[in-house]
Write a structure and sequence with these properties.
Blueprint: E1 10-15, E2 24-31, E3 38-41, E4 51-53, E5 60-62, H1 73-96
Antiparallel strand pairs: 1-2, 2-3, 4-5
Amino acid sequence: MALLNFRPGGIGQSFDEPGFTGRCVEVHTSTCAHCQAITEFPSMRKMHEHVDICRSCMKLVCLSCAGLPCMPYEAQATREEKMASIKARIEDRWARV
C-alpha cells in the first residue's frame, strides 16, 4: 500500500494496462467546489498548477471555474430543488382547474 493512502485528501489510482502487470500509479485529487469536476495532480507541490482557490467561498476550484462568479454546488442544488418544488405546486394547481 502506498503512502498516499495515509495522507488526508483524495487519491486517484490508475493501472498501467488492460493485462494488469501489478503497476499502480497514485495521484492526488481535488473536487471542484463549483462544478464537482475531479482534478488530478502529481504532488501537493504542483497542486497550484492544476487547481485554484475561489476568492468568495475560499474553496478549491478547477481551472475552468477559476475567475467565474462564485456558485457553490450546494447552492446550485438548493436552487434546483426550490425550482422543482415551485414547478410541482404550479402543476398541482393546474391539475385542479
